[in-house]
Amino acid sequence: MSVPSEEHLPLYRQLADHYQQAVAQGALPPGARMPSVRELMQRHGVSLSTALQALRTLEEQGSVQARPRVGYFVQDHRVHLLGHSSEPDPRCPVQQIDGAQFAGINERISLWLEQGRRAQVRVDLGAAMPAPELFDHLTLNRIGAALLREFPDVLVLGNSRPGTHPLFQAAMARQALEVGVSVAPQEVMATLGNSDAVNLALAAVTERGDVVAVESPTFYGVLQAVETQNLRALEIPSSSRTGISLEALELAVQNEPRLRAVVVVPHLQMPNGALMPDSHKERLVAFCRRHDLALIEDDIYRELVDAPVLQRPLKAWDETGQVIYCVSFNKTLAPGLRQGWMNGGRWHERIQILKFARTRNMQVWAQLLAARTVGTPAHERHLRRFRGALRLQRERSVQMVARHFPQGTRLSVPPGGLSLWIELPAGVSSMVLFEQALALGIRVAPGPIFSNSGRYEGFLRLSCGLPFSPEVEWAYGELGRLLHGQVRALPAQRQAA
Amino acid sequence: MSVPSEEHLPLYRQLADHYQQAVAQGALPPGARMPSVRELMQRHGVSLSTALQALRTLEEQGSVQARPRVGYFVQDHRVHLLGHSSEPDPRCPVQQIDGAQFAGINERISLWLEQGRRAQVRVDLGAAMPAPELFDHLTLNRIGAALLREFPDVLVLGNSRPGTHPLFQAAMARQALEVGVSVAPQEVMATLGNSDAVNLALAAVTERGDVVAVESPTFYGVLQAVETQNLRALEIPSSSRTGISLEALELAVQNEPRLRAVVVVPHLQMPNGALMPDSHKERLVAFCRRHDLALIEDDIYRELVDAPVLQRPLKAWDETGQVIYCVSFNKTLAPGLRQGWMNGGRWHERIQILKFARTRNMQVWAQLLAARTVGTPAHERHLRRFRGALRLQRERSVQMVARHFPQGTRLSVPPGGLSLWIELPAGVSSMVLFEQALALGIRVAPGPIFSNSGRYEGFLRLSCGLPFSPEVEWAYGELGRLLHGQVRALPAQRQAA
What we know:
Two copies of one chain form a homodimer. Chain A has 497 residues and is of the alpha/beta class. Chain A has three domains: 11-74, Winged helix-like DNA-binding domain superfamily/Winged helix DNA-binding domain (Arc Repressor Mutant, subunit A, Orthogonal Bundle), CATH 1.10.10; 109-134 and 380-496, Alpha-Beta Complex (Aspartate Aminotransferase, domain 1), CATH 3.90.1150; 137-376, Type I PLP-dependent aspartate aminotransferase-like (Major domain) (Aspartate Aminotransferase, domain 2, 3-Layer(aba) Sandwich). Helices cover 42% and strands 13% of the residues of chain A. In chain A, the strands form four sheets. Chain A has an eight-stranded mixed β-sheet, with helices on both faces. In chain A, strands 12-13-16-15 form a four-stranded antiparallel β-sheet. In chain A, strands 1-2 form a two-stranded antiparallel ribbon. In chain A, α2 crosses α3 and α5 (137-150) packs across α12. Chain A is globular. The relative contact order of chain A is 0.14. Chains A and B meet through α4, α5, α7, α8 and α11 of A and α4, α5, α7, α8 and α11 of B. Chains A, B: In the C-terminal section; belongs to the class-I pyridoxal-phosphate-dependent aminotransferase family.
């Protein structure tokens, strides 16, 4: 059979992966008809049940859609009025490191945040944060109060060294195992969310002046961490279909002797929404092992993928401790809890030392709350409802963008998550839009904060965290009006081009 | 009058300060009779009520003791069987910076912690942490649960930028004002305890390779922070009576062009227990302003001073933002809450940026819990009971040391706090004691972890955090037995010396 053999994977998963990759790479374009069950059986020499299971897996992943009595079709995540986002050239030469670009990302972010704070924000489409009403606060509060009765001295016990509670460690290790990540409980270390973890990981594997490969575009928090630690970020093109470009990484390794680490968000890359295919994950882990690069995996959005159980973290392929695995419950369980955890792979001990030097022990109550919640049927129900609500909000957002934004706007609808990454018509500036919208009380995230290089002025991140309301609809209308105004003000030849 | 005039201070405070300093400097030795009320009136030209108030102030501070119908006497904190700790020469040349000594403190601390973890510890006299039963966990748990009802979305709200809640800011600013520290509420920043704060302060004011003046001996966490940030610690002698030596700091400034910051614990210095007199504080702040050094004040133990209200932080003398003020509730309210705060003085904005880059927002529930508790009559009652219990435990500890430890053991009883800093007889090693005691299930803190230079092998820190029990008494007996064993094994000429 033509499916590349992967050990440990059942046949139907191998088959599903094969077609998921074909879809991701565009070999099977959106709307295309999938091979029938009979065709799959003949072409790959598999049984009826394997072929059926593969198609159902693809359907759960959101890659294909069943049309009853007709067959399976590749899911069309694009709204027809919108063009698909342009893809970076994965083989384009890696951007040269330029000292000047590494100064100022913190100032830029701070300015953006500060402007947002000072303004009277009526509709916040800038923060990639789910609205509080999407979480199960009643259950959380009930468990939180129960824990205070059950562990009456949890707030006054001081010697919980090394700071991570065994119950939390056990629960996290058990959860990780369900997606193929095998971590010893005692090697689970509690963190203050994910930024803490990524910062510690960078501190453990680099020295001042070292180079860190980041995705481009990337979450601005990574750029802040790199800058505040006096490191240099090398921006590697990231496709909204498959994530970071391995070809560009190859070039980077050849040209950058001080390259030490790669930071990626493999599931629902922030901001472009990419979902890295399994084959790509396997190659990336092997690549980092071969070149002795620390692979820092920020797995904060996996549970927001429409079919998260089928997504295995990079860490699942890690046999040598090359992957530093970072998880947070900030986006899925309780943003106000500030609870995350990490496993530092072969740097775990050094990371523990750094963590202790920086912030000593972590609060135990929050760990117990996470341990008591994660993995329960109630939490699984919450996650299903939560993903459903976010899916609806994403779809509504896409409709609003299609209705209100000017011709030439392009986007790829991500298979889950909290936000849309939108490419504006040529010549239109998201920075101008940011300023104009803020004056109306609408906050957005302009593209330039997702890069050190000032790239992405033509891009915009919109949060889909807010449930739709007349005010949110009004905000999309106003954004559209402002964008149309920018298009009209463009020089004529620019518009024609 | 001979009292140096200090503006803003009432006359009786000036008078009390004058005598407190005389006591601290040894001009009035322990047990000496204070001038009578009449003598004070004549000598300083003050009224009866001013003289009386000054004596009462000194009594509240624990500097003098009233003997009814006899007069006031300088408090004798020493137990008569024990000698007073030797004082460092404040004018001794500052230790030369030696690269080798800056490697390894984290490894040494980690080893110490790890050995403590692996052993079956029956009695922990190593951690300077109050026993959980000394805290008011019932009140904390009640308020904690009430807050979950009152702020039902506190665990699921994500956008509390910049991470510090206004109610927390207001409560902390109000508390600070009571001890003379004027901080705008919006310039109160929540931290994960005090290590977080000191780390952020160091990161904000230094560059790699810069020099930081620390007290010697000092809390090992400071040395860990300095090492993990690739800075160099310069150890400045610290007296157990008056704290850091200004004379040695003067020398350091002259010889060390890369000196950027000074880290001090002005109240109950860890480990030597010093309480810095007001005049010393004023000089230190002026000194740092003159030489443009950041003065990082770790004010974690102030409320454990037997008369804490009279202790004004260094920050109270800071008119130019030279002092970075760090507070934690780890030792006074709830060790398991992990809540602290800081004001970064003129570096506050940079510190906020660093904090956001490292750990984003802080948990709000813990902030509300601290804000709701601190400053209430119930909390003041807790603190009074707490200080009383600690005082009793310190006194018992001193008695046990006097009873069991070999001749030649010396210590200064600190005017508050959690621990004793004990000088062992010449030739006796606290590292040897640590290993031997651990084998019996007794954990102590050996002197060498309080310095980069391997100094203080002849010193020992014992925690007084544990209420006395037969097991604690047993532990003191065993420590004494082990120390006597070491003394007996010393070469004869050493014992004679």
